[in-house]
Amino acid sequence: MSNFFTQMKSVIGQAEVQINIKTKGDLLTVMVLPKTTANDPALQEIQPLIMSGTPEDLDSGFIAAVRGPLKKTVGLISNVEDFEASTAKAAKETQATKAAEDKLKKEREEETKKFDVLVKRAEELEQADKHSPALDNYRQAVAIKPDDAKVKKRIADLESKLSENSLFDLQPIGGEGE
Fold it and tell me: In this structure, what DSSP letter does residue 46 have?
């Protein structure tokens, strides 16, 4: 029994290899060509390894003769395929990252726009002496941008102003003086 396929498996690993055999008289011509799924045009130019001999000659020396060239070619093809796959994955991840960044940027722009509208509206209300609605707008704005010192100061000023006019501050609770 021959161990041709066991030996070929050790030579080609996980690669796909096309083998064609042609008979002419007492001789066999064997063509071996590794296949690739890579898009690299240079890999499409790889020529097949062709050997001719009697069946006995090929039985005794075929594997030894193709081992070196096939291992090199299969290794090259594998490296290019791995490179192309990793490049495609990186491109996809980059696109996903860009999409996420674009979405975050859009959300930030929308928040900034909403913040600006709330602050403008609060300022208009404050100028119209509508302090309580102005305070509500400032509070909504500070919920969007909690670190905005200007809005925090306006809130504190309005709270102070509103507490000056509060009935609760003017009249003591519990009936002092009654």
Answer: P
134 phi and psi, to 5 degrees? -65, -45
Return the number of other C-beta atoms located less than 10 Å from residue 26's C-beta. 9
d(CA 160, CA 156): 6
pLDDT in tens, 91-102: 888 888 888 888
What is the chain's percent helix, strand, coil content, to nearest 5? 65, 15, 20
Comparing 48 with 168, which gets the higher pLDDT? 48
Q: Give the chain's end-to-end CA distance (angstroms, integer).
A: 119
3-class SS of residue 51: strand
Contact 41, 85 (CB under 8 A): no
**Residue 170 — very low, low, confident or very high, per pLDDT cuts 50/70/90?**
very low
Contact 84, 38 (CB under 8 A): yes
> Of 52, 49, 79, nearest to 67 (Cα)?
49
**Per the structure block, which two tokens stand in for 5?**
């396929």
Q: Residue 144's closest CA among 118, 174, 177, 105?
A: 118
pTM, to two decimals: 0.47
